[in-house]
Specification:
Number of helices: 4
Radius of gyration: 26 Å
Strand content: 35-45%
CATH class of the largest domain: Mainly Beta
CATH topology of the largest domain: Methylamine Dehydrogenase, Chain H
Structural class: mainly beta
CATH superfamily of the largest domain: YVTN repeat-like/Quinoprotein amine dehydrogenase
CATH architecture of the largest domain: 7 Propeller
Largest sheet: 8 strands, mixed
Length: 831
């Protein structure tokens, strides 16, 4: 969820008002998580295709014709192209810009990756212990976005709380499972060692959707990989090829997370790889009996004597919730089918609709709440088809009907959205009329905290009426789960986009407390470092703003919103820039706090638009003041480090996409890559910048067309004419290419051997001190080439499998640093 950053609010510089009306760009300020997840999803699955010969030495296309919003509304859609999906990175296109990999592609790529990293050939020369990546944090972010400025973690999809509330497992959106043994005072990751066994290649992704434990033996842990909360965003694809983000199916631990086992689905049934998990319900009497609500259907886990456990499809369709109750030794399961209704089962095999009178129209996601020992009472909170709140409904078995609850608060913002992303419920285990609802954000507070409500119900006419109190103002927004400590109605847990929180008196207070120390699952985007002080860093975080540290794993929140690129002036580190939600922010005190920043608005085409500075050059400190911003199809260049910006674009790139990557070779030469696969070089002569297209040169054009995720200057060329590019998306394993000033050649190694994988490659650097060495950050791992891209090997020791979005080398300390989207920052010594 996006919240406008606070600051001085100075509106200066380029075109004001955010979106670019012409040229077809979709304004990135879309409500809810769609605004930041859709571009990430599209970048990962952009289509890599051979470049058409007609593009070679073709003239630059004219800039797209600008249209007023009214004209765009009146324009009829093309009859042969359904517009369910509209590309963010290619604004005039739709589904055709996305690849169509199988749902098992992530599982297969992980298998390839782990084979490679366990069998890397030895380097020439004397052997030495391989260096290891070490974490830089954030282990949490202090002074975060909620009342009281609590410490924040990253996005957590679900919790499993053991009796007593001391042992808790947190399933994070892209950082794996974490464990606490002290009620959340400290956490440790559990999946970093999961891949140490070189014979186990079917390894999990770190994207989790659901988690559950055996309450009698909490060492037994079940995890459903693939994040259910983001299902609706992925399902917007017409082909529905990859509805979940990096899921490979169910996994299990029998020793509290020390080791993990991948489990399989029925050999004759559909696989859960590439699908999403919404809920897991463990039979309290038979821990091997588990029900899963997934994007593929209801699955039942069972174990036959002498055989391995299997998951069997019992009911097809998207099911968004699964819960279990037990009474007099008998378990009863309940599940919710997206847009349809609620079902029950006495055995997990046979399912039937529950009751009568549940809404039949305009129903979206449904989440269920029960008391653990009462199979005769079920609550269902449902969104409508547009993500707004449809209602809360109660089923009592003695009546056999669903009854609506009136007087509901704005669990989802007024006007409605995000019900497909964050919708949660918990019922007081002793009082069936007291329950808690969680949604997106609470509107009546400057910090935009969580929408968590305590409801006390009373009969009213044919239904119930609720007296509601907001109790989530001390919690980060976007609530994914609410649950009580087993047997304790006075301990309520919440997990959200800001981590984990607990309330020790939920029936009377709003005193949620942060439990995020060590929950290092923040989704880092891009970072900046002080070249003279290696301890000083800034990082942009999804939904947790921009954070700063002067050393150590604890970071301080200094700017709000969805943090993107940030930049530190290498000649004067007090000058810093950051990007969030369509605006550039500038501070002259190193970005010490939320109040430090001046704000500059630009056209907003990409969720995180690139801001780059010139190469570190202490001999020419004035060069440090030259910075470039890519905004939609325009590039703005400032020569006073963003104190002022030109009123009109410095450069306008004729592209079918938008500016996605920038890299200065010097203060007078800039390389530009676009989301549509074009590569340009811009040179400054006097006060004028001139543009030259490189990807379509006749001497040897770039053979692939796809998202240009990053560019790296080839520092071995003293003339700075040569450049490497990294391509995102899927469809071809050759993701790194080299331009020698005249023609293009692959720099991706050897297919099937010392080559790269066919996954998105997000970040690329050429070592200035040793220009033959290249490093690339991909959706799986960091890769290293010692020979200008002729061969590649994984550089993985100590690095989690979370996607790597940014790579930089600290020039003084020779530290390779990486930002991971789900596990924060890491560094590796190069010397």
């Amino acid at each position: 969820m996006k919240r406008a950053p606070r600051g001085k609010g100075k509106q200066a510089g380029a075109k004001r008002g955010g979106a670019k009306k012409g040229g077809g760009f979709v304004h990135a300020r879309e409500a809810g998580p769609h605004g930041w997840l859709s571009p990430l999803r599209e970048a990962s699955y952009a289509r890599l295709v051979p470049r058409e010969l007609s593009e070679v030495e073709a003239p630059l296309p004219p800039p797209p014709k600008k249209e007023s919003p009214k004209k765009k509304e009146e324009k009829a859609p093309e009859p042969d192209r359904p517009r369910k999906y509209r590309s963010r990175l290619h604004p005039e296109a739709g589904e055709e810009v996305l690849s169509e990999p199988s749902t098992t592609v992530w599982q297969h790529r992980l298998s390839e990756y782990h084979k490679r990293r366990h069998f890397v050939p030895p380097a020439p020369g004397p052997t030495a212990p391989a260096p290891r990546w070490t974490p830089l944090g954030p282990s949490c972010v202090l002074e975060g976005q909620a009342l009281g400025r609590p410490a924040m973690g990253g996005r957590v999809a679900g919790l499993a709380v053991a009796p007593g509330g001391k042992l808790v497992y947190a399933a994070t959106a892209n950082g794996g499972v974490f464990r606490t043994d002290d009620g959340g005072q400290s956490w440790r990751p559990l999946m970093d060692a999961f891949d140490l066994n070189p014979t186990n290649y079917a390894c999990t992704s770190l994207a989790c959707g659901a988690i559950a434990i055996d309450q009698k033996d909490p060492r037994r842990v079940y995890v459903g990989t693939g994040e259910g909360d983001t299902y609706a965003i992925f399902s917007m694809r017409l082909t529905n090829a990859l509805p979940a983000y990096r899921g490979i199916g169910p996994i299990r631990s029998d020793d509290g997370g020390q080791t993990w086992t991948c489990e399989v689905t029925d050999g004759g049934g559909p696989t859960l790889a590439g699908e999403a998990f919404f809920g897991l319900a463990v039979d309290p009497n038979q821990r091997d009996h588990v029900i899963a609500a997934t994007s593929k259907g209801i699955f039942q886990r069972s174990v036959q004597p002498g055989a391995d456990p299997v998951w069997t499809l019992r009911r097809a369709g998207v099911h968004s919730s699964a819960v279990v109750t037990t009474f007099q030794g008998a378990a009863r399961f309940f599940a919710a089918e997206w847009s349809k209704g609620v079902l029950e089962s006495p055995d997990g095999v046979h399912w039937a609709p529950l009751g009568e009178g549940f809404p039949a129209a305009n129903v979206g996601r449904i989440t269920l709440g029960v008391q653990p020992d009462n199979p005769d009472l079920v609550y269902a909170v449902a969104s409508d088809g547009h993500g707004g709140l449809l209602g809360l409904f109660r089923f009592d078995r003695k009546d056999g009907r669903w009854k609506a609850v009136q007087g509901l608060p704005h669990v989802l913002p007024e006007g409605g959205f995000q019900g497909d992303y964050d919708l949660s419920i918990a019922v007081d285990p002793q009082d069936s009329t007291c329950l808690y609802l969680g949604g997106s954000f609470y509107e009546d507070n400057q910090y935009w905290p969580a929408s968590i409500w305590r409801l006390q119900l009373a009969p009213s006419g044919a239904g119930y009426k609720a007296a509601a109190s907001p109790i989530g103002v001390r919690v980060h927004a976007d609530v994914h789960a609410l649950l009580h400590t087993p047997g304790n109605r006075d301990e309520l847990w919440a997990c959200c986009d800001g981590g984990v929180f607990v309330n020790a008196a939920p029936r009377t207070t709003d005193r949620f407390q942060s439990r995020n120390n060590g929950l290092a699952c923040l989704c880092a985007n891009y970072f900046a470092q002080d070249p003279t002080d290696p301890g000083t860093l800034l990082v942009g975080l999804q939904d947790n703003g921009t954070a700063r540290t002067h050393g150590g794993s604890l970071w301080k929140h200094v700017n709000s919103g969805d943090g993107g690129y940030c930049l530190i002036n290498w000649a004067n580190p007090d000058l810093v820039l950051s990007f969030a939600n369509g605006a550039v922010y500038r501070a002259e005190d190193g970005g010490a706090s939320d109040e430090s920043w001046d704000q500059f608005n630009f056209p907003w085409g990409m969720m995180t638009e690139p801001i780059v500075g010139t190469p570190y050059n202490p001999k020419s400190p004035a060069d440090a003041n030259t910075v470039a911003l890519g905004a939609a199809r325009d590039v703005y260049i400032s020569t006073d480090f963003g104190a002022t910006w030109p009123k009109s674009p410095t450069l306008s790139v004729p592209s079918q996409g938008g500016v996605f990557a920038l890299s200065f070779a010097s203060a007078k030469r800039l390389f530009i890559g676009t989301s549509a696969g074009e590569v340009f070089r811009a040179d400054k002569s006097g006060s004028t910048w001139r543009l030259l297209r490189l990807d379509n040169v006749a001497a040897g054009h770039l053979p692939l067309r796809g998202l240009v995720a990053d560019l790296a200057v080839d520092w071995s060329d003293p003339k700075r004419n040569q450049v490497y590019v990294a391509l995102g998306g899927m469809g071809d394993w050759r993701h790194v290419w080299h331009f020698n000033g005249t023609s293009w050649a692959p720099a991706s190694g050897v297919q099937g051997g010392a080559g790269l994988l066919d996954v998105e490659h997000n970040a690329l650097i050429c070592d200035r001190a040793e220009p033959g060495h290249l490093y690339v950050g991909a959706d799986i791992g960091v890769w290293h080439s010692r020979d200008k891209g002729q061969t590649w090997e994984p550089l993985s020791a100590g690095l989690p499998d979370a996607p790597v979005f940014d790579l930089q080398i600290h020039p003084a300390r020779r530290l390779l640093r990486a930002s991971t989207h789900g596990r924060g920052l890491f560094e590796l010594p190069l010397n």
